[in-house]
Amino acid sequence: MATVKLTTPIDEATIRSLHVGDTVAITGRLYTGRDAVHHRIHTGVKPPVDLEGQIIYHCGPVMVKEGDQWVCKAAGPTTSSREEPYQWEVMRDYKIRGVIGKGGMGPKTLAACKEYGAVYMHAIGGAAQVCAASIKRVDGVDWMDLGSPEAIWHLWVEDFMAIVTMDAHGKSLHEQVFEESRARLAALKA
Amino acid sequence: MTATAPLRDVSTESALFETILELIRRTSTQLPDDVVTAITAARKNEAEGSNADVALNVIGCNIGLARVSSLPLCQDTGTILFYVHTPVGYDQLEFREIATEAVRKATKVGYLRQNSVDSVTGKNTGDNTGPGSPVFHFHQWREPHVEVKLMLKGGGCENMNAQYSLPHPDLGGRDLKGVENAILDAVLQAQGQGCGPGILGVCIGGDRATGYEHAKEQLLRTMDDANDDAELGALEERVVEKANQSGIGPMGFGGKTTLLACKVGKLNRLPASFFVSIAYMCWAFRRRGVTLDARGNAAEWLY
């Protein structure tokens, strides 16, 4: 399958042209955001950066300060399902065009992807070095009071690879695999 | 080392500190050979070019990159679990202090992520220490030397752990069939969220706390370790075989490799209780070990 090249910020039409199973290679800015960031936005605090057309990466990286510069030592995806209560709101209110994470998300997010024009992209969980290899720079950080893993890191990436597993057409690979595996395991029950 | 070997001179402290720091570095950056072998073998079963194949290929690249660059395999460097066997008379308090210092240093240099957070205020201590971190399981033994095993277990897979109480209306009664169904239900519920292909540590019995503890300790067994109990060994094989027919696959992308191994132990239980405790370990199965000489230097690296 061909790889689709994406450059952030991304327009809605490009995102809506993606389908479950597509491999993407992303170049540009990624903002990390996980549990504490989503919770804070949910309580009504405005994000410190303009998220329109951007991608939120569910990731709590290992960062080390070398001199004045932050250096990313490891940066794979974290489990996305924890953001299921909040993600749809961020899609609606701040027009993000995608999230990257692992493990997939639920029906609220899937519906928001369709309604507001966004996709869920799955990176390889645990592959922190492969992910970090495509992070070329750390351009800044916000909300450091949340602690390093929970802060909003501004990452500059080149050809960051991920697989679309939930698209803007209402299709979810996670839903499909869950239903199929449930049926198969039911047939194998002791 | 003899049971009465002194541990208070500074040079010994320093050697132990360096050994534990190196143990942490190796654990965070180098996957054990038995796990690498299992992952490599699994890739042959997946259709070339499938999402499962892509996932296992990236995982293979990641294992190599982490080893070469001496950087964490996974950014979630997890719960820091020390399993320490010591001879009678060994100073466990001092070991705890020195190992905790090594954890602080390992965090500072980036072998470990700042990963310890106050459960109410959410404040990160910044150095991986605090109530409950790192975790030490001390056991005395009759051997003359100290053995230290370290496991780093990430939050993604820890969140997929599950505990069942049998009988269960859908899963069955207090027998190995009920146990098998409970384990496979945990696999179904986890899907790809625990960063599969996974490795399961299971305990049948115990109470809710010792059950989980024993389940995790099963993960100290090597991937190819045969169960002493033939019945439990057969259960381990059945679970892996059935899980790999589920189609969940690596990362939950679909495919033939859902589990790499399953290790089952048992503890006695109360007549009233029957727990099945399941510890889900991700493919980034970081466990290493070392035995110490009398001065705290590494005598032999394990795994």
**Considering DSSP H and I runs of 4 or more, what fraction of the residues of chain A is helical?**
25-40%
Number of strands of chain B: 9
Global Rg of chain A: 16 Å
Report the end-to-end length of chain B measured between terminal Cα atoms.
Answer: 22 Å
Fold topology:
The complex is a heterodimer of chains A (190) and B (303).
Chain A: E1 3-7, H1 12-16, E2 23-32, H2 35-42, E3 55-57, E4 62-66, E5 69-74, H3 84-94, E6 98-101, H4 107-116, E7 119-122, H5 128-133, E8 135-142, E9 152-166, H6 173-187
Chain B: H1 10-29, H2 33-43, H3 51-69, E1 79-87, H4 92-108, E2 135-141, E3 146-153, H5 155-158, E4 162-165, H6 176-190, E5 198-204, H7 208-217, H8 230-243, E6 259-266, E7 275-281, E8 286-292, E9 298-302
Parallel strand pairs in B: 1-2, 5-6
Antiparallel strand pairs in B: 1-3, 3-8, 4-7, 5-7, 8-9
Any descriptors?
heterodimer; A: 190 residues; alpha/beta; fumarase; two-stranded antiparallel ribbon; 6 helices; 9 strands; globular; B: 303 residues; alpha+beta; Dihydrodipicolinate Reductase, domain 2; five-stranded mixed beta sheet; four-stranded mixed beta sheet; 8 helices; 36% helix
Q: Nutshell version of this structure?
A:
Chain A has 190 residues and is α/β, with parallel strands linked by helices. Chain A is 29% helix and 32% strand.
What does the model show?
The complex is a heterodimer of chains A (190) and B (303). The longest helix of chain A is centred in the C-terminal third of the chain and has 15 residues. Helices cover 29% and strands 32% of the residues of chain A. Chain A has one domain: Alpha-Beta Barrel (fumarase). Chain A has 190 residues and is of the alpha/beta class. In chain A, the strands form 2 sheets. Chain A has a 5-stranded mixed beta barrel. Chain A has a two-stranded antiparallel sheet with strand order 4-5. By secondary structure, chain B is α+β, with helices and mostly antiparallel strands. Chain B folds into 2 domains: 121 residues, Dihydrodipicolinate Reductase, domain 2, CATH 3.30.360; 126 residues, no CATH class. Chain B is built from 8 helices and 9 strands. In chain B, the strands form 2 sheets. Chain B has a 5-stranded mixed beta sheet with strand order 2-1-3-8-9. Chain B has a 4-stranded mixed beta sheet with strand order 4-7-5-6. In chain B, helix 4 links the parallel strand 1 and strand 2. The longest helix of chain B has 20 residues. The two termini of chain B are 22 Å apart. Chains A and B meet through helix 5, strand 9 and helix 6 of A and helix 3 and helix 6 of B.
